[in-house]
Amino acid sequence: MKTKLFFSLGLGLLLTSCVLEEIAGDVLTTGTGTGTTTAPALTNDEVIAGLKEALTIGIKKGAEMASVTDGFFKNDMIKIPFPPEAEAMKEKAIEWGLQNKVDEIILTLNRAAETASQKASPIFVDAITNMSIGDGFEILHGSDSAATMYLIKTTTSPLTTAFMPVVKEAIEAVELTKYWNPLATKYNQTTKITGKPEINPDLDKYVTDRAITGLFYLVKQEERKIRKDPVAQVTDLLKKVFGSLL
């Protein structure tokens, strides 16, 4: 079965309309009095291939943005903060004149996330490659983050498995515990007086979870660009699929 794409020149479809949904749209024709103007026909296979290519480009770009130096640390939208569970310890450390140690911990957490993000692209690409036609058209007709939601559903588990040892190794490589343990030990001594709970958050899990969340945020931004911005259609297949609307 073929999905044909036609559009009315008289209606002047806007470039800012949702490109992906228009690809899967119904057939439109415009009578000219002597004939009919049509857009190139596209098969379901071409539409899904275009979608997969668009998503692959977007997710690779998102992963690359996260995995470079300062990809997390200098991006306020995904920067990993001092663990919220240890906020009281952070405040005490600053009172003790240890702001530099707090800053070193935050930098290290973000460096670990940046390193782990290098493992993301092949996992994302595998999920996209194995996407069914049904999944593809559900994404086409979905929200502007439908593909990201699909990736969250299909890749969170393998990403966690891949990220955890990398995060652990990265944290050990920069000797985060050299900064963390003394602060935690000193803070925990005060809890005997204050009655507050001791601090011992799982830094590996904390960084892994925040890294994956930040990565999905970047992927979502790239998905929205592909859906709405014709300039983002950079390959021959994307130009053929999305260009049929111009």
Task: Characterise this structure.
The protein is mainly alpha-helical and 246 residues long. It has one domain (56-228). Helices cover 63% and strands 4% of the residues. The chain contains ten helices and four strands, in the order βαβββααααααααα. The protein has helices at residues 19-23, 44-67, 87-95, 99-116, 120-129, 133-140, 146-173, 176-194, 203-228, 236-243; strands at residues 2-4, 30-31, 36-37, 41-43. The strands form two sheets. The protein has a two-stranded antiparallel sheet. A hairpin with a 4-residue loop joins strand 2 and strand 3. It is elongated and about 70 Å long. The two termini are 24 Å apart. 33% of the residues are buried. The model is unreliable at 1-37 (pLDDT under 50).
In short:
The protein is mainly α and 246 residues long. The protein has helices at 19-23, 44-67, 87-95, 99-116, 120-129, 133-140, 146-173, 176-194, 203-228, 236-243, and strands spanning 2-4, 30-31, 36-37, 41-43. The strands form 2 sheets. A two-stranded antiparallel ribbon has the order 1-4. A two-stranded antiparallel sheet has the order 2-3.
